[in-house]
């Protein structure tokens, strides 16, 4: 979301009474096929991925909910990523792909899925949780299959203040380089999930309903940074009235890729 100091964002009147959750689930459908589902209050998406022992052979994406009208066709763009190699380590980048041409949330979920496949993992669920808190001391938790595996605290500048092993690390600009140089593959993946969830979760402080039906760029990403903000579609983009306020962990990411009418 853009940040204009001259036009402060309207505060969410419900903030302080709950938490933000971002849930990602992976499920094996067949030896050569998996499903990945992500949901948070602002996004809900599903991917279906086919693969062999070396690469992704087919990628489909669909929205359950998307924030801007310009996001609508992002799932179809993923089909062109078939042929990308499986990656056993999230620190490995796909040099063959341009992330800014895709939905950031779909692209990140696809990368996580490629690691999931390469590691031959069973079904797995990740929950990133941000309890409502003061901006100067924001706790962030990562649950894996319901168990707490990492908790950090960040300040208003998105710098980690605890635990001591990560203190001073940037969670926004400079995160990827800092993390790739210092962390194991498992640590990197966990902090990547936290980093992505935190970036979206801080938006919970804003009253998004004030932007419904208005120019998408007022509350959306910076221009040309993702599928929905590319210039050919951002100029006419509008914010949709479909955020899921008060989303609870037990209710998140329960929808499948395929609806009965779509199969």
What this model shows, in words?
α3 runs antiparallel to α4 (185-201). The protein is of the alpha+beta class. It is built from 5 helices and 8 strands, in the order ββββααββββααα. The chain is 18% helix and 24% strand. A hairpin with a 2-residue loop joins β1 and β2 (33-39).
In which order are the strands of the major sheet placed? 4-3-2-1-5-6-7-8
Order of helices and strands: EEEEHHEEEEHHH
The whole-number mean of residue pLDDT values reads 93
Q: Which term fits the overall shape?
A: globular
Structural class: alpha+beta
Number of helices: 5
Termini, distance in Å?
34 Å
Biggest beta sheet attributes: 8 strands, antiparallel
**Unreliably modeled segments:** 1-6
What level of helicity do the residues show?
A: 10-25%
Radius of gyration: 18 Å
Q: Kindly state the number of beta strands.
A: 8
Strand content: 15-25%
């Amino acid at each position: 979301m853009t940040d204009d100091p001259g036009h402060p964002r309207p505060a969410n009147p419900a903030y302080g009474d709950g938490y933000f959750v971002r849930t990602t689930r992976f499920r094996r459908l067949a030896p050569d096929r998996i499903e990945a589902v992500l949901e948070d209050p602002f996004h809900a998406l599903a991917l279906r991925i086919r693969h062999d022992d070396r690469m992704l052979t087919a990628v489909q994406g669909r929205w359950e909910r998307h924030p801007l009208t310009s996001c609508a066709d992002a799932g179809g763009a993923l089909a062109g990523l078939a042929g990308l190699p499986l990656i056993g380590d999230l620190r490995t980048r796909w040099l063959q792909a341009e992330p800014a041409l895709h939905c950031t949330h779909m692209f990140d979920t696809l990368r996580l899925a490629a690691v999931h496949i390469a590691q031959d993992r069973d079904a797995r669920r990740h929950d990133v949780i941000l309890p409502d808190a003061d901006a100067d001391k924001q706790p962030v938790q990562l649950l894996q299959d319901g168990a707490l595996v990492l908790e950090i605290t960040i300040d208003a500048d998105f710098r980690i203040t605890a635990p001591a092993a990560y203190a001073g690390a940037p969670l926004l600009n400079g995160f990827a380089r800092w993390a790739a140089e210092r962390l194991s593959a498992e640590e990197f993946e966990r902090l990547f999930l936290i980093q992505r969830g935190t970036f979206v979760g801080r938006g919970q402080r804003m009253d998004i309903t004030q932007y419904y039906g208005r120019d998408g760029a007022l509350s959306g990403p910076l221009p040309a940074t993702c599928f929905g903000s590319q210039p050919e579609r951002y100029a006419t983009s509008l914010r949709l009235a479909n955020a899921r306020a008060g989303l609870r962990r037990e209710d998140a990411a329960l929808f499948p890729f395929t609806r009965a009418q779509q199969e």
